[in-house]
Amino acid sequence: MTSPTPVVELVKAGFAYEDGPAVLSGVDFAVAEGRAIALLGRNGSGKTTLLRLLSGGLRCGSGSLLLDGAEVAYDRKGLTRLRTTVQLVVQDPDDQLFAASVGQDVSFGPMNLGLPEEEVRLRVREALEALDIVALEDRPTHLLSYGQRKRAAIAGAVAMRPRVLIMDEPTAGLDPHGQERLLEALERLREAGTTVVMATHDVDLALRWADEAAVLSPAGLRTGPVGELLADDALLTAARLRRPWGTSVARLLRAHGLLGADAAEPRTPEDLDAWVTAEVAAPGRPS
Ligand SMILES: Nc1ncnc2c1ncn2[C@@H]1O[C@H](COP(=O)(O)OP(=O)(O)OP(=O)(O)O)[C@@H](O)[C@H]1O
Ligand SMILES: [Mg+2]
Question: pLDDT tens for residues 137-178?
Fold first, then answer.
């Protein structure tokens, strides 16, 4: 069976900052349409660098970047095509926000695409609603709290309606409500067909939200189903990641013979609650 062509793909990608050691080498990373991918790895492992290579902000020192299967040309036309497909929300919102007000900032990208005013207004409204910041539309960006700036920066990317939305630690600094709102917004985007790649240090969030994981460790990049990779103790140790809560609970239940080897593991407290309820109502656990 042949898999469909990834939307964007790094092939044997290598990169080093000027006069620095290699940050990434020989990295293969395919982003297939419609996926939710969590990128994990310790501080300084190269997550931000990888996301910048993927979105064209940095250029591979070796290897290549493909868009819909064709090598990206780093000229004006090639980069414009890449940037209308792939949007990166950077780690620090202060590196992204520059307009005087939230509304102006979010409208900047769509306006730059040359869209009619009506369409720009619609997209801005939609993006502000998605991130729950409609009330902040006229507020000066420099007076916002960190979490509000973070949401405004994400809204700016969402307003571009990219096929691939890449976010560098989007939940860092958001309060629990803000995180839930963001996950809901991402769910709606995914339902609309948007592919999402997110760098995060939160293994629980990754297990709950992603279907694929990409883990950077000194051995390189490993990609695969999130449940499988985040249950691999050797990989977690190499990448200095904690085992997710759900994986630990599943192990405990299995060790006590309460959960079958092939049964789905709980990924959230709500999953566990549903499992307990089902088991109590209709016990069918392996003996
Ligand atoms: N502009 C730069 N110039 C030189 N070296 C850099 C630059 N940006 C990052 N590096 C180095 O590249 C390596 C990878 O950094 P990167 O920011 O990609 O890591 P990261 O996984 O995103 O880390 P974090 O979890 O802290 O965000 C680090 O060793 C870092 O010091
Ligand atoms: Mg980073």
Answer: 999 999 999 989 999 999 999 999 999 999 999 999 888 888
The structure tokens listed for 175 are 């309060």
Phi and psi angles of residue 283, each rounded to the nearest 5 degrees, phi first: -60, 130
Instruction: Give the number of whichever ligand sits closest to the CA of residue 90.
Output: 2
Q: Torsion angle of alpha carbons 65, 85, 56, 144, nearest 10°?
A: -150
- Per-domain boundaries in the chain: 8-243, 255-287
Contact 100, 150 (CB under 8 A): no
Class of domain 8-243: alpha beta
Closest CA to 75 of 50, 89, 56, 62: 56
For 62-79, the pLDDT digits (tens) are 999 999 999 999 999 999
Q: Which residue has the tokens 């405990």?
A: 252
For residue 21, the ligand closest to its alpha carbon is: 1
Give the residue, by CA position, lying nearest to ligand 1 atom 27: 43
Count of all residues that appear for the chain in the document: 287
- Residues at CB less than 6 angstroms from ligand 1: 17, 20, 23, 41, 43-49, 91
Q: Which two tokens stand for residue 12?
A: 């044997």
CA dist 14 and 61 (Å) reads 5
**Span from the CA of 166 to the centroid of ligand 1 (angstroms):** 17
Distance (Å, whole) CA 247 – CA 231: 6
Residue found by looking up tokens 């309606």 in the block? 161
Pairing verdict, β 22-31 and 8-16: antiparallel
- Regarding pTM above 0.85, the answer is yes
Mean pLDDT estimate for the chain: 92
Of 24, 45, 166, the one to substitute when testing ligand 1's pocket (max ligand atoms within 8 A of C-beta) is 45
Q: What is the DSSP letter of 211?
A: S
Q: Give the atom of ligand 1 at the shortest distance from the alpha carbon of 216.
A: 21
